[in-house]
Amino acid sequence: MSEAKVNPMRKIKVDKLILNCCVGESGDRLTRAARVLEQLTGQQPVYSKARYTLRSFGIRRNEKIAVHVTVRGEKALEILERGLKVKEYELLQQNFSDTGNFGFGINEHIDLGIKYDPTTGIYGMDFFVCLTRPGARVAKRKARQTRVGFNHKITKDDAIKWFQDKFEGVVLAKAI
Fold first, then answer.
1. By C-alpha distance, which of 22, 20, 27, 36 is closest to 119?
2. What is the pLDDT of residues 100-137, one digit of tens each?
């Protein structure tokens, strides 16, 4: 009776980590960025296309301009740890969304521990983390689908508290 029981269904975990590397043009730079993501994750990245033409940026509709990869499980936590180490475990309040997810970007992929290769170059990338609780599958499954209750959804405050507990991170109110 010394400790209150912790409900295992309230435990927050990482559902997935999405790594995005937007180059802004198709061709050789994009394939090199895809190679960097494959090196980092060990998975085949997916190419993203431009939604519409922007003459000022020099991109056309349906032109491949970015690569992204979704990582789940232990590998996602390990890559997230390396990404947060680059940010020195400091995130801004605005990095967290109202639905309990968070994201941040890094400027150089070589900070993650990948050896610099002059033929590849240096690429920045975005990390986006989706958090979930056990039981969230009821909203996604095919049979007997139902809604996740409001109390079971992850809020911005829950995500910030999880980040501070799990990684002993610091959440700053505004950029310095």
1. 36
2. 999 999 998 888 888 888 888 899 999 999 999 999 99
